[in-house]
Design a protein that fits this description.
By secondary structure, the protein is of the alpha+beta class. It folds into three domains: about 210 residues, no CATH class; about 70 residues, no CATH class; about 80 residues, no CATH class. The chain is extended.
Length: about 375
């Protein structure tokens, strides 16, 4: 799960964002939700998946999590567990001397309590193909939650089959499995401002709208807003502030790492080592480099989020990048279309994390092309 900043350009930002909601989270059953045929995907899972079962001496198989495979603690076991647990009774799930216990309400009328999971003597644990244990329709309902639509009836997409359904023929055999989803989803919730509360700086005497701050986000200073007309934004001042902060940070970081060899970037290490030496070796090498070690061991808590790869450039280039990025968000919504760094397919280019400068250039080119009466709305999206 992550947060990212999105600039919505133009009027009615809510309407522009609407096509990109994640239906499974919003539950908004609108025109952007589509019926997606997932029959082949589920059929493959059904044929490939296996389950472990407890098999009795007579050959019957059972789910290992049936209540018959849980027993009460003996008095001695409970006394020992409480003693080992600092005097506290067990709660939830845990391990006790190699045995697994679970706390819950059991169907034996004896109340809420912890019980130990066990396999009775004479039983064995064996692996079965799911297709040996249940029908395809049972698998679909248990795995994906889609319920069967009785043959000859229509799915109730308002209630029972809101998130999907299973169609069957007159013999009860599955003919189609449908998942209802928005294939263009980008967010499960959003708010104006959020973690980026006070993103835009106003020109003197201008006004705008302040959104709601995110968790542990301070309210913005006077003169900073989240929704504003382009002509009322002091972009020059925003750039200057970003450059001044960048210069200060660059100098501070260089005191710690400037005398050390320039590090190999993570992208380079990954490309060079992943296929030959593996992910763990690549991570270990990357963090073993002198600059990374120096930042980690400097003792300055403000340095904890520093990415040394960003400091392989000159001071001038670092400051310029900060200025170019001063008004940049991860994504843009314009005219009901979503564009983002990494997969934007916009202006004939495709960007990724290694060529952010091109995204910055094109983003700022777009901002410069907008008329001063264009509404800008900064949104904190979550997915």
């Amino acid at each position: 799960m992550s947060h990212f900043a999105v600039l919505v350009i133009g009027a009615h930002p809510e309407q522009q964002l609407a096509p990109f909601h994640e239906f499974e989270c919003t539950g908004k059953n609108d025109q952007y939700v589509q019926d997606t045929d997932v029959t082949d995907e589920y059929r493959k899972d059904y044929e490939d998946r296996t389950k472990n079962r407890y098999v009795s001496p007579t050959g019957e198989n059972f789910s290992p999590y049936s209540e018959q495979f849980y027993r009460d603690f003996t008095e001695e076991e409970m006394v020992a567990l409480i003693a080992e647990n600092g005097g506290q009774k067990p709660y939830g799930s845990g391990d006790f001397r190699g045995m697994r216990y679970t706390t819950g309400s059991w169907d034996d009328g004896k109340g809420y309590r912890s019980r130990i999971h066990f396999m009775p003597e004479g039983y064995t644990e064996q692996e079965f193909k799911v297709s040996e244990l249940e029908t395809f329709a049972e698998f679909v309902e248990g795995w994906g939650g889609q319920k069967v639509v009785p043959f000859g009836e229509m799915p109730d997409t308002d209630e029972t089959h809101k998130y999907g359904y299973v169609l069957v023929d007159e013999n009860g055999d599955v003919t189609k499995v449908v998942k209802r989803t928005n294939p263009n989803s980008k967010w499960d919730w959003y708010k104006i401002g959020g973690r980026w509360n006070g993103f835009y700086k106003l020109k003197d005497g201008r006004i705008g709208k302040v959104g709601k701050p995110g968790v542990m986000t301070e309210a913005p200073k006077e003169g900073y807003v989240d929704q504003v007309y382009k002509g009322d934004v002091d972009f020059a001042s925003m750039r200057k502030e970003a450059e001044e902060k960048a210069a200060e940070l660059y100098d501070k970081v260089m005191v710690i790492i400037g005398h050390l060899p320039v590090n190999e970037t993570w992208d380079s290490v990954r490309d060079r080592m992943f296929d030959t030496e593996g992910r763990d070796a690549a991570i270990a090498f990357y963090h073993s480099q002198p600059r990374n070690k120096a930042i980690k061991e400097c003792g300055d808590r403000e340095m904890i989020w520093i990415v040394v790869d960003e400091f392989v450039v000159s001071r001038e280039e670092y400051i310029k990048r900060a200025g170019d990025a001063s008004c940049i968000t991860f994504a843009i919504v314009k005219d009901g279309q979503w564009f983002e760094r990494g997969e934007m397919g916009w202006w004939g280019v495709v960007t990724n994390e290694s060529d952010r400068s091109e995204w910055y250039a094109k983003y700022n080119e777009l901002l410069n092309s907008l008329s001063d009466d264009t509404l800008l709305t900064l949104v904190d999206c979550h997915i």
